[in-house]
Amino acid sequence: MKHRHLLPEEIDQLLDGEEGFGVAPLRTHLDECPDCQGKYRTLATVVSGLESLPLIAPSPVFTDKVMSQVQVFEPWHVALRDNIQRLMPQSSVGRVFAGATGGIMAVAMTVVAVWLGRRADAVLFLADLVIQRTRDGLAGALNTAVLSLFGSSTATALQGGGAVTLLGVAGGAAAAVLVVAFGVKTLATASRRRRS
Hints:
This protein is mostly helical.
């Protein structure tokens, strides 16, 4: 072993007092090499200093403080199970009541789903009715707003023109708002430049 010095892990083996057939050549090299003896003595001083330190028990909240900073990966199914267990009552009577309530709700939802499946035409009719009433209500509100802002002749023209006219008017109003906003911004920028 004269061709190279001991590696740090080999010095650690000697410091730990390990035994084995590979340790004897390490001890032989250590006895013959002054450089490795110096490293060994330095590390032995550090080890004995560490071993002489008093054992201090950490604070009871130390673990909580450390773990609050550690992000522990938790699979989704474990998190779901833990949340369900947290929501479940602790008493057996409460668990029976919660189970019965969940069962009744599952049966009720199944019955409603089967009824909706068998009565799909009624559900579609009801959805169409709701959409039609909502559209009529919005059109009436828009008509009232146009009537109060622009007068009856504009409201009559919009009603006669249909959806295309309504979209054209809405687009024109949006374009007018954008032009006015751009003009105000340009004026404000020019005024600011004149002041400075």
